[in-house]
Amino acid sequence: MPLPCPSSITPSSPPSSIPQRHGWSRRFYLGLALAAIISTVIATALDPFSYHEILLDHWFGPVGQQTGGFIVMLRHAVWLLIPLGVVTVAALLWSWVLGQQVAQRTRQLQQELHERRQAEAALRESETRFRDITEAASDWIWEMDEQLRFTHLSERFYALTGIAPQYVIGRARWDLAAVDVAANAQKWRQHREMLEKHLPFRDFVYQTQVGSSYGQDRFLKINGKPIYDSGGQFLGYRGTGTDITEQLKAEAALRESEVRLRRIIDLVPHMIFAKDRHGHFLLANRATADAYGLTVDELVNRSHSIVHGMEDEVARMLTDDLEVIETGNSKFIAEETFTDHAGHTRTLQTIKIPFLEPGSNEIAALGVAIDITEQKRAKEEVARMRLYLKNIIDSMPSVLIGVDPWGYITVLNQPAEQVSGVSWEAAQGRFFGDVFPQLEGQFEQVRQAIRLGRTIKTPRMTLDAQGELHYADVMVYPLMADGGRGAVIRMDDVTARVRIESMMVQTEKMLSVGGLAAGMAHEINNPLGVILQGCQNTLRRIDPAMPQNRAVAAAIGIDLDRLHRYLEQRQILHFLAGIREAGIRAAKIVSDMLSFSRRSETHFGLVDLEEMLETVLRLAVSDYDLKKKYDFKRIAIQRDYDPTLRMVHCDKTKIEQVILNLLKNAAQAMAEEGVPAPTIILRTRREAEYTLIEVLDNGPGMDEKTLKRIFEPFFTTKDVGVGTGLGLSVSYFIVTEQHNGRLSVTSKPGQGACFSIRLPLIREALP
Amino acid sequence: MSEWVLIVDDEAMIRENLKAYLEDEGLKVATFEAVTPALSWLRAGGTCRVCIMDMRLSDMDGNSAIRILRQSYPEMEFLIHTGSSSYNLPEDLRSMGLDDDRVYHKPLCDMAPLAAAVRVLAARWGGGA
């Protein structure tokens, strides 16, 4: 660092030079005036031409005899007074001029004094500043004598280096750096030559080991120039020095840090790079170089367009770089495609920031690109999987409702949307009980399932769906996955299954009745045979018309006619008829029970449906029971036949039996209730898989309790002795078991009843 | 009428009722509670045109009895009177000329059709002789 040299301390010119010049001309004019005055005085005093006489005469009058001595004396006195006055004036003038000059000179002196004081103060200040600077700076000042031995070192040196003065003063520099001299002989030789030639030098760095209180080597950097006396004699060297040990250490640390940083950025799997506005790589980490199939050294300082073959990608990236460079704002690119050297297309997420390259005043774009190819693929896979799972749960026939632990809906599948009429989006976040009021009571199960971590089942929950009784199995599954506590409510409509099961129970009952009947039929039929045959023989053998009876009666002396009258009067014949009827009924029950058997014979064939129905109607009209108890002719019959239906595959006798039974029941029910305009509608329809035959009446109908049990064997609403209690159950058995069809009934109290027989259209469906 | 109507039935009252009815109709009736005594009676010189056979008997079933009797007495005609409603006429019996019309299910509310059938068969036998 060059020493400061303030110019103010060297006086450039005398400050009073210009006023002196003025004084000189004034003195000249004053001298001239004085000479004039003196000459005037002399001329006046001597007065060689006696002008004074003329003048005095002019003033006092001419001197005569009368003129006293006093006047003469006054005339001389006046005459003397004139030069005296002139001299006095001149003397006064002279003294004034002198006074003026003295005052001016004094002022000059005062000013000079003042200026000198100022200069001295400035000098002192400069000196202080210089000292302060040398003291404060990391530099010090050194001086050498002509023998190149240190004669002076500023305090700073000792303070900075910790080297004591006694190690330095009187010694040459190379003595202080013996180790360095040995190590760098060439450097020192040159330095020594330079000094011996008395040349100035700059930035000579050397290492010294002497007297360092830190116990370690110090690196010093020195500048120096030779000094000469006024005669040009070489006096030695003077210069400055700096301890650069710390600086070198810092530099070394910086280098190390840079290496470390380099390692780190090379270790980062993301691409880190900087490019200038022309697309040249200023910096790149290994990941970046790898992406281009190059080493870092190969990549740096090369143009992007050269190392990267994909023109459109290069152009797009350069546009982004330029945007960042021009605007000075960072740019986040959420997704961009990049084709690496192997031709694989990768998806990058890049952030670019403006970056001032050290040692350059041009702004570059510094970028970090993260390869999100896998991430994106995983994301897409997750989305695909989500859709897939959604499809799966949507394709489930069960109603699935996902809820959180507080019962708020998180997921609905399609059946759930259909059942509730609310879309998933609309239902999300609502309490499930609000969307599915039929499941409101399940909240306790939801809580329990989550608490206990197991499935809670509610089988056969009854639901009232628009007045119809429905059944649902409800299951609550706890969700135990991380981060997704809650439950799934699954609801299956099992109405159909429950009905089928109840039908199966019915069928089983009938079959067991059938089995029982088959087992006991023989045992019952024999006694019934005894009863009925016995009855017949009894009646025959008391008949007076029979000759054998008459012969026997005559032989033992009995009047058969009278006996017959007796039997009639005592109602014995009536009782016998009663026994006979009871026997017949019992036989019918047994035979009905026997029809609940799969083994019973069937005779299937193609039957004209309309013809069959007409036959049944004729049978009904001529039916003994119907004729006797209920006037079937009073009933209006409406025919509602499907013209597309003709032939049905069935056992004609059995189906006739079923329909006749239904007609009888309808007639009986309407007669009992006294329906004013009893009507039966016979309806046929073609369904997808079945031929439908319906028998509708406008009778009293049935309540639900009756409906539930209507097909049960031995269930009857009729008075004791009127029906066997097997008619409908036999019909049910014939239709469902023997024809693989369906028999169902819908009715409500006061609204008539509708019995529906469904026979399969397809023959193969038969058992 | 010297030919007998044979009734084989294990139920005594059934036998007796049938016998009473047929006798009232003027037929000669022999009754047996099982096949063995009936065979003994026939071997002892009993003659018979029509046999009313029960199926469930103590010594053998009715079908076997018919086969045995048919072998020894080819002219004998059979009517089946059974308490089993699921009775099916075996094929070999059908080939002997029996059909479903020969099968009568217990209980018989009216014995007249059975008696008529016995008469028809007896007449045929007689006619054939």
From TrEMBL, chain A:
It is an enzyme of class 2 (transferase). Residues 204-256, 332-384 form the PAC domain. Residues 109-136 form a coiled coil. The chain crosses the membrane at residues 28-46, 77-98. The keyword Kinase applies. It holds the Pfam family PAS_4. Residues 519-763 form the Histidine kinase domain. Gene3D superfamilies: 1.10.287.130, Histidine kinase-like ATPase, C-terminal domain, PAS domain. Its EC number is 2.7.13.3. This is histidine kinase.
UniProtKB/TrEMBL annotation, chain B:
Gene3D superfamilies: 3.40.50.2300. GO terms for cellular component: cytosol; protein-DNA complex. Coiled coil: none annotated. Residues 4-121 form the Response regulatory domain. The modification 4-aspartylphosphate is found at D54. Keywords: DNA-binding, Phosphoprotein, Transcription, Transcription regulation, Two-component regulatory system. The keyword Transcription applies. The keyword Transcription regulation applies. GO terms for biological process: regulation of DNA-templated transcription. One of its GO terms (molecular function) is phosphorelay response regulator activity. CDD domains: REC (cd00156). PANTHER family: REGULATOR OF RPOS, TWO-COMPONENT RESPONSE REGULATOR ORR33. This is Response regulator receiver protein.
